[in-house]
Each structure stands twice: as structure tokens, then as C-alpha cells.
Predict the 3D structure of the following.
Amino acid sequence: MADEPSNPLQRPLPSGIVPQDEVDRTEKRWLIIMVGMLALMMAIVVVTSIAHALHPPSNVEPTDPVTLHLQGEFVESNLGTALEPDGVTVRLIAQQFSFVPNCVKVPANTPVKFRLTSADVVHGFILVDTNVNTMVVPGFVSEVRTSFATLGDYRMPCDEFCGLGHQGMWARVVVVLKDQFPSLTPEQRTNCVSDVSQ
Ligand code: CUA
């Protein structure tokens, strides 16, 4: 090396030992990379929380969980399946530890809009074998739009841990023929008990 003669006291390093200044340089380089990664991750967290994550997954619609059963869209008489101009709307309340109502019928090949809210804690709404999946947060309405091409029973377990009875909290959606649906009474649309006994 060129600087060896200028410092005769410096002995050559044993093989396998990295010189101190090279260690310093490498440490500094990795420090810069780590700080850069941290800054990038913090920026992603801040940007996505401002732009996307400060609200429930679907739409921001506040509601008062304390007066759900007394007034507004989620009073008991309004729950279940309703035929509306743009398709079928299903209104459900999630509460520890059930969905109300716990079975709804919807027609096949029809736009179906699920509107849910929670009366207490955060619950999960998922329809097995479909891509329907959202959180149900008290104080907000969660809305999911879908349509069913296949007839049958879709299980609907709560998929957000909500307390000691969580594993027993589930409901189902029964998809019936499109032509059959209008002839069902509102009672039959939100009650599947008669089907079970047949
Ligand atoms: Cu409701 Cu888990």
C-alpha cells in the first residue's frame, strides 16, 4: 500500500481482520440505510392513515350505537331484507354474541347491499366462499355490495374477536331463486327456521 512507509510502526493486520476505518465506513453506510428505511416506513404509515385508513373499510357513515333500537335505519322493524329500487338491501346489527336477524334470504343474480352496524364492540362480517368481508364498528355503518350467482347457504361467522362468546357468534345468508324471492313474506325473508324443519 502507498501509505505503509509513512507509518513504520503500523504492523500489517493479520489476515481476516478488517481495518478500523473500513468498519467505520460500513457502519455509517448501514446506519444511513436503516434511517432511510425507518423514514420510508413512517412516511407510508402517515400517508396511508391520512389518505385511507382513518375510517371504516367501506364508507364513512356515523350512527349512534346507543339509540340504534329506538330510532333510525336500524330499528328492529327495519332489519332484514328489503326490496329497493336498486336491488335488495340487507340490514343487520352485530352485537355480543349474535347477528340480528341471524338468517336472511336474498335472491340470486340481484345486486345485494349489506348494511351493518354494531351495538357494542367491533365485530367481523364475512361470508364464507365469497369475497365479502368487513369489520363492523360501533358508531359507523359498514356497507358491502355483492351479488350471488349460486343458490344455497352461506355461513356468516363473526371473524373479529369480540369477547368470550365470539366463537358462537354466527349467522347465515340463504340465496334463493330470483323468481321465488318476491313471493316470500317479510317474515320468511328473515327467518330460516321453517326451511330447517322441511
Ligand atoms: Cu362478534 Cu366475534
Observations:
- The pocket of dinuclear copper ion is lined by residues 94, 97, 123, 158, 160-162, 166, 169 (CB under 6 Å).
